[in-house]
Amino acid sequence: MDYIKKYIEDNKERFFEELFGLIRIPSISSLSEHKADMVKCAEYWKESILKAGADKAEVMPTDGNPVVYGEKIIDPSLPTVIVYAHYDVMPVDPIDKWHTKPFEPVIKDGKIWARGADDDKGQGFMHAKAFELMVKTNTLPCNVKFMIEGEEEIGSPSLGKWCKEHKDLLKGDIILVSDTSMIAADVPSITTGLRGLSYWEVEVTGPDHDLHSGLFGGAVANPINVLCDMIAQMQDKDSKITVPGFYDDVLEVSAEERKLLAKKPFNEEEYKKAINVKALKGEKGYTTPERTGIRPSFDVCGIWGGYTGEGAKTVLPSKAYAKISTRLVPNQDNVKISKLFKEYFESIAPDYVKVVVTPLHGGQGYVCPIDFPAYKAAEKAYEHVYGKQPIPVRSGGSIPIISTFEEVLGIKSVLMGFGLEADAIHSPNENYPVENFLKGIETIPMFYKHFAELSNKTA
Amino acid sequence: MDYIKKYIEDNKERFFEELFGLIRIPSISSLSEHKADMVKCAEYWKESILKAGADKAEVMPTDGNPVVYGEKIIDPSLPTVIVYAHYDVMPVDPIDKWHTKPFEPVIKDGKIWARGADDDKGQGFMHAKAFELMVKTNTLPCNVKFMIEGEEEIGSPSLGKWCKEHKDLLKGDIILVSDTSMIAADVPSITTGLRGLSYWEVEVTGPDHDLHSGLFGGAVANPINVLCDMIAQMQDKDSKITVPGFYDDVLEVSAEERKLLAKKPFNEEEYKKAINVKALKGEKGYTTPERTGIRPSFDVCGIWGGYTGEGAKTVLPSKAYAKISTRLVPNQDNVKISKLFKEYFESIAPDYVKVVVTPLHGGQGYVCPIDFPAYKAAEKAYEHVYGKQPIPVRSGGSIPIISTFEEVLGIKSVLMGFGLEADAIHSPNENYPVENFLKGIETIPMFYKHFAELSNKTA
C-alpha cells in the first residue's frame, strides 16, 4: 500500500494548512455569541468535502446548529460507510492557562496545539483527507456519506431529530467515528464501550437578596453552605452515589470480563504522575480503569456563588449554583437517572432554602460487539499500519449520539480513535500529535478496504 | 434647641448635594482598579471638613489608602471627641440586581439610593454637617478631631499602625462612630457589642490541569466535590462549628443577661418575610437574636471553580476556591481562631488534594459599658430627639478597628448608628432614609452637649 504513504507524504503540508483553516474558526457550541462561527465552520466542512471529491455536499438546517451532509455513491450495491464527526469545540477557559492562542494552531514539538486540534477537528478532518486520498488514487471501495454536526459538545440536542427526518438519506452499513483516544502512540486500541451522561444545573436560594454576613450570619441559612452540604451528601464514604435507585440498572461485569479488561496496560504511578496527584479516589471495590470503564461517576463540573472577586468581601449571599454531571454505564437510562437525581436532590433540600434542578443534557451509553465485520475491519486496518492487534477498551467518556444512531437509524458505530490521553481535550493546551493525524489518514483507507471485503458486498 | 432644627431645615438641600458628591466617587477598597478613587474621595472629605470649619485638615499617607485627619481645638481644657468614619465602600456586584446606578445617588420614596448611602458615607457625613452646624451657630462645646479611613471594608489593615504612629495627634476622650444600625426608624438603639471576624481564602487543587470528566471521572478526586465535603464538615448537625478549640474562649452569657437582651423587640415572622425564607437555621439552643448577637457564626462568602459559563461543559477541574468567614464574639481572639481554622482545614484535607488556606483579614469583638459617660450622653441625645430611651443592642456585625482603638489609643468608642436593617448595606440597592440622615445631624450636637457636661471638663 505504498500509494497511501506516498500520497500522504506528497500532500501533508496542504493537509495541515486545510486543517488549520478549520481550527481557526472558534466554533464553541455552548456560547451563543459564536452562532455565526458555527455556520462558517459548517460551510468550511462542506467545501472540504466537495474539494475532496464528493458528488454533493450541503449545509442542512436543524433546530440548532446546522449539519453538513455530503456523499459519494460509486455503486449502490457496494457497502456504505457513514462518517460521523463534529465541527463544534469546547470553551477555552481558563484562557490564562494556554501557552498558545487556542484558535491560532501551531506545530511545535511534533504536535498541533489548538482547541479542536484533536477533538474533533483534527480527528474528524483525517476522514476528509483519507476520502480524498481514496478518490484521487481511484481506490475508494465503498460508498461514503458524511454527517458532520455542530452540537456534540452540548450533547447533540438536534441531531437525533434530524436523523429521524432524514432516514432515507442516511441508509448505510456502518457509522465510522474518530472521536476517542488510543492507549498510546504505539499501542492502538478501539473503543468498544462508552459511558452515558446526565447533566444538571442546580440553583439554591436562601434569602431573596444578599445579606450582611455579620448582621444575619448564624441566624439565616447560607445557600453556599447548604449547597456544599447537599453535594457532600450525594456520595457516601465509599464514593457510592446515594441517589436511591441509581445503581438498579447497572450491569455488574463478570469476574471473567473484568480479568480481560485488566489486560489493558495500566501503570498507576505514571497515571498519578501525569496529573500530579499523590493519591487517587474512587468507588470502593474497583480498580482505577474499572472506575472509569464499567462504573458510573459523579462530578461537580462547576460551582459558583457569593463574592468571587479580589480580596475579602463579607456577604451572606442569596444564591449558589452548581453544574453537576454523572457518567452512566450501558443499560443505565439517562432519562430515568435524570429524574431520580432531580427528585432526590430536591427531596434533601432543607426547608430554609429553595432548590431548582434543571436538566441540561444527557445521553445513553454504548457497547460495540467485537465479533462484528466493522470491528474486524478496524482491527485489520490498525494491524496493517501499527503492526499490532488493537486492544478493545471501554472508555469512560460519552458520545451520547452514538446510541441515538443505533436507536434511530439501526446502524452500529465503530470508534477508531487516534487521540492520546495527553492531548488535553476539553482543557487548556489541547494538542494532537502530527504522527497520529497522519497515521489516522493512513489507517482509514485500510478500514474501507477490509470492510468492503468482510461485508460480502464487494463488487 | 430650635436653632438646630432651623439650621438643618435651612441647609438640607445643600447637605444632600455635598453628600452626593462624596457618594459619586466609586471608592471600592477591595478592588485595586479604584486606587485613584480612594485618593479622590479622601480629598473630598478633607475639603468638606475644612469648609465645615476645621482649623486644619489633611490627607495623610498610610501603608494602604490614606487617612483624612482634621481638627478644631477650641480649648485644650475641654473634652475632645474623635469622630471616626470610613470613606471606602463595598463592591457593587451583583450589578444587575440594582434598580438604580450604584454611584449615581437619587432620592426616591424618602430614601437615598446608592452604594455608601448608609455605609458609611451617609452616616459618616452626618458628622461633618453636625460639626458645621455647631461651628456656624457658635455652640461647639468640645474639641473635635476627625479620623476618616479608606480601608474599613477590607478590615482596616493600615489604620492600627497609623494610630500607633500618631498617638500624640489622637489624644482624646471618646471615639464617636456612626456605622451601625438602630432597631427601627422610631426605636432608637445603641450598639454595645460587636462581633469579631476571621476571613480566609481556601484553594483546593486536585489534578494539576483540568481533566475530561468522562475519561477521568470516578477515578480522580474532583476538587469541587472535595471542597464541598470539607465545608460540610465544618459544622455539625446542630450548626456548631467543628474546629477544635473554637468555642474555648466564648464567654457564655448568663441567663439573666439573655433575658435582658430578649427585650429588644423581635418578630420572627416579619424577619423571615423580610428576606423571604420559609425557615431559619442556626446554632441549636439559641434564639435568632442570640445567634447573631452573642454567638459566633460560620459563612462561606463566596465559592467558585470549574465551568461556570452558559450551558453544559463537562470537566473535572483542577481547582476549587472559597472565601470563608467566621464572626467571633468578644473574648475570642481572631488571631488564635485564624490559626485554629487554618490548622483544622488543612488537617481534614484528604491526601488526594492539596489545600492552601490564606488568612485575608480579621478583627476582635468589642463591648461598650452602659454605665459610662459617653454612653449616657448618647442615651440623652437620642431621648431628646426621639422622645425615647434607646435600647442597648449587641450587633452581629464587626468593626474590627474599634477594638484596635481601645488597644492602641486606650480610648473607648460609642456607636451611635442611624442605619436600618432594611438599608441593604453590602448588597444591591443600598439605601438610607432621608429622615435618618437628618435626625442623625440633629442628634449629634446633643451628644456633644451632654458629653461636655458629663465629662466634668466643661469650661
Could you characterize what this model shows?
The structure is a homodimer of 459-residue chains. The first copy, chain A, is of the alpha/beta class and 459 residues long. The first copy, chain A, starts with a helix and ends in a 5-residue tail after the last helix. Chain A is globular and about 80 Å long. Chain A has two domains: 2-194 and 365-454, 3-Layer(aba) Sandwich (Aminopeptidase); 196-247 and 296-360, Alpha-Beta Plaits, CATH 3.30.70. The model of chain A has no long low-confidence stretch (mean pLDDT 95). Chain A has 13 helices and 16 strands. In chain A, the strands form four sheets. Chain A has a six-stranded mixed beta sheet, sandwiched between helices. A four-stranded antiparallel beta sheet of chain A has the order 10-11-9-12. In chain A, strands 4-5-16 form a three-stranded antiparallel beta sheet. The interface between A and B is large, with 102 and 103 residues. Strand 10 (297-306) of chain A pairs antiparallel with strand 10 of chain B.
